[in-house]
Amino acid sequence: MTMPPSSPDPFAPGINTPLAPGLDSIVPDEFPPNDAAPGTIPAGKPRSMFVRGLEVFLENKLAIVGVVILVAMVLFCYLGPFLYHTDQIHTNLAIENQGPGSGHPLGTDSSGYDVLGRLMVGGRVSLEVGMAAAILATVVGTLWGAIAGYVGGAVDAVMMRLVDAILAIPTLFLALVVVSMYPATELELIIVIALTSWLTTARLIRGEALSLRVRDYVQAMKVMGGGGTRAVLRHIAPNAVGTIIVSATFQVADAILLVVALSYLGLGVQPPKTDWGGMLSDGVQYTYDGYWWLIYPAGVAIILVVIAINFIGDALRDSFEVRLQRR
Amino acid sequence: MAPLLEIKDLHTEIRLRRSTVHAIDGVNLTVEPGECLGIVGESGCGKTMTALSVMRLLPNGGHITGGSIVLDGQDITNLDDEAMQDVRGNLVGMIFQDPMTSLNPTMTIGDQIAESVRLHRGADKQAGLERAVEVLGLVGMPKPAERIGNFPHQLSGGMRQRVMIAMALACEPKLLIADEPTTALDVTIQKQILELLDNLRQRLGMAVILVTHDLGVIAGRADRVAVMYAGRVVETTDTTTLFANPRHPYTQALFEALPDKIVEPAGVAKRLYNIPGQPPDLTSPPQGCKFAARCRYAQDSCRETEPDLTYDVALHEYRCFFPVGEAALDAPAQDADAPTVAAAEAEAEAEATEGAVPVLATAPSVAGDGATPNGTLLKVEHLIKDFPVTAGAILQRRVGSVSAVADVSFEVPRGKTFGMVGESGCGKTTIGRLIVGLEKANAGSITFDGQDLAKLSNRGRRQHSGKIQLMFQDSYASMDPRMRVATILREPLVIQKQGSRRDQEKRIAAIMNEVGLPQAALERYPHEFSGGQRQRLGLARALVLRPSMIVADEPVSALDVSIQAQILNLMLDLQKDNGLTYLFISHDLSVVRYLSDIIGVMYLGKLVEVGPADDVYFGPVHPYTKGLIDTVPVADPLLERAKESQGVMGELPSAVAPPSGCRFRTRCPLAQDICAEQEPPLRPFTAKGHLAACHFPLREPEADAGAPAVAEKTTASGGQ
């Protein structure tokens, strides 16, 4: 074996020198001759994924409608009470079930609470529980699914059979058992709902992870010496983000509806607190009395929020998926 | 006789959301009955769009905006969809690149072929199937009557492409358009399919348009060639003339970029000519000659007005003001304006000659001195890898195993390039993955820099992994699409915890310079780059950790010839500058020969021949190596047509139950009984370390082949 006479030991000069010192000498002032032709890189300012995604998102009219509705709802629930003062703690049976009129734009309910004010207070619980439960479920489900899919083998089998087992218990049944054992608080509702709804996310993400883990860029990362944590957190989860977002938006809608269902059965937050489902449940008792103001406001609020979130989810998926299209 | 197909001044555009691609810009072509016209050019030149325009099967947003296509006396430019359905299949048939995606996986192949007969001929099911059997026999499908009940996934790639051809032929079209018909296939299968197309053309008297990027494929098959660039035909003439005397600088440059034109022996520094830059963006084509920006001979006039098609010999048309060839055959760059490239080339050449080291891998060093600085860097011994074949969804019973790598031993000297060739499925990629640690070997050892990789703990392995890096075939797929280039390049340093953030950024900046990309590229995402640039990024990422070895798995096979030349040159430069060692895996023998000091030929998990690159390439000993060399199409019509050898016949046997004895015996023309009984050991044929495993080698070993140094090597790698 003879080596090039010019550099008897090719390793000495360049390869194993520590990074910092002498590095400047490696950076040539001009390109060496070997890049006769790298071609041009695309013109224009580099735009981040976020900006690109935002552009696509804003092209979707329904998404904008969704955002407007959602923002309006949040403002309504959280800022509304400051502008429109009502007593939502003490009952006042003297003015029960009054129709809309002066002083009470949406009337009063069977306990004499002002319906418009109650809508604001109830909305807080619905939105908070819905969002928090969805976020919790998505985080847990994503990690669970990504780990199961990435690691594979026996670990995957055990993790996913556990998911199957929990899925076999009806959500409402589980919620009913827990809630009837302990009086319902917001935190408890969040945990109960998250506990039952991370399962579908886990399954979806596991499927995604199965296909992502064999991608070349995950392989490339392994060749560099990277481990599983990095693969799951830096490569698999970000690339599954389309799926994650879509399932998260469904989770929000589902969670809100589940709170509604529990409250409707009388197992939601306890009076004097309430949520939209609880209001609906109260109002239904008076269906035959024609007290429509006890049903419509809460019902419409639920429908609007759920629809808005679905619109946003649809558009978000699009704006994450177009990332790779040349536009 | 009127031409079968006459395309006049064809313009095709594709409307995108915000722009319009002028995919075809004034193409004129004629095809005579029974003729084979080859269309060549880089990707994105409009070759496929021309073919799709004739079929009127343009992608969404695509439409013909001008010119005419006259097929068999009928203008099909404005035919309505229904009339066009009659033309497709009946008059023109088309074969696509990937037979797997072009066949319906839920229908039997018989039904799929019969479908077109039933549509066009009104035949009933029975008659359709009978015709299917007939055409399947025509395309060389063994036992066609039994095969019509098969589904596409039950057939091999070559057989699927035969089915595609049978479908295209079922209604006896007068024109067959083959769009890259063999690009997805192995060389050995490619040869068989091309022979078949040639044979069918002669027997059925139909015309063929062969669209390909491979000049070698064109050389042996086409009567006439049209060279396309940026949506235009830049040169067209008969094949022999074109290859002997190209007039357009683009055609000339394409030829010069081919690695098989290199005549210097392996080991001597050399450079391929590469066409600078990339094809123009067809959404806003440049003014003047489209090729001017990349042309060595371009002058100011080229950039202002576009040359028309001219000719000095009848039937040899070209679109250039300053044609090369003939008169200007040896003329140097004529213009002071354009010397940037030429000068850079000359400079590089001079430099290359200076630093030329005509050193060959002489006899691979004696086993055992793995750690000496000038000795062996990587030593692979008796490496075995089986992949289990399992059945059942839950219990995963092991029902057999795929023998991907079976007792392979070789050594790679420091600073050299070991080229590994073989058909797909021969285990060359698996060896690469074993070396970089993506797979675990069942048996055998991989010694790198004196350290047995198998004995390292997981943690040690991870720390070690910076020293051997992998370069992927598809560099786009190997980069996380959600990361910016800067993050992608920094990732290896972050994982290996090298340096502070500032150091890492400096290192990245340096590496971008080394691979010839501007710093501005760091802010971009991978999808914003062209194929060649992405491959540069792939190389940059592999180099960031300053590895001593790079395993390059088919790094150029997805690239155009001109870009391929850029990358190969860059790899050579980087090797020279950094003392890198390469394990270069490829199916393309000419590329391997260009880059490698040592070539190893693999067949079905076995290393059948290994030796200094030129010894193996010019004096193959194993019949498989010889067959492989004969199979590779050469970009020279005279040579290509004079080839008598059939190359390697048949298809690769299954690795689940490999043939006994010599694994190649089922396809070997020289095989005898002993080949089935005894596995031939690797034995030396020259004193310089040329080894082959064959009972009936093409030549006898040299007398001094069994020198002691090599003898030990033989026992070490002989298998059994």
Short description:
The complex is a heterodimer of chains A (327) and B (720). By secondary structure, chain A is mainly alpha-helical.
Going by helix content, strand content and strand pairing, the class of chain A is mainly alpha
Tally of separate helices of chain B: 25
Count of DSSP strands of chain A: 0
The percent range for strand residues of chain A is under 5%
The biggest beta sheet of chain B, please? 8 strands, mixed
Determine the fraction of residues in helical runs of chain B and give it as a percent range. 25-40%
Structural class designation of chain B: alpha/beta
Report the total helices of chain A: 14
**Which pair of chains has the greatest number of interface residues, and how are they split between the two chains?**
A-B, 57 and 91 residues
Output the helix-strand order of chain A. Answer: HHHHHHHHHHHHHH
Please tell me what the overall shape of chain A is. flat
Low-pLDDT sequence parts of chain B:
327-373, 707-720
Helix percent band of chain A = 55-70%
The proportion of strand residues of chain B reads 15-25%
Radius of gyration of chain A: 28 Å
- Radius of gyration of chain B, Cα only, in angstroms? 27 Å
Overall 3D shape of chain B:
globular
Specify the oligomeric state. heterodimer
Looking across the biggest beta sheet of chain B, what order are the strands in?
A: 6-7-8-3-9-10-12-11
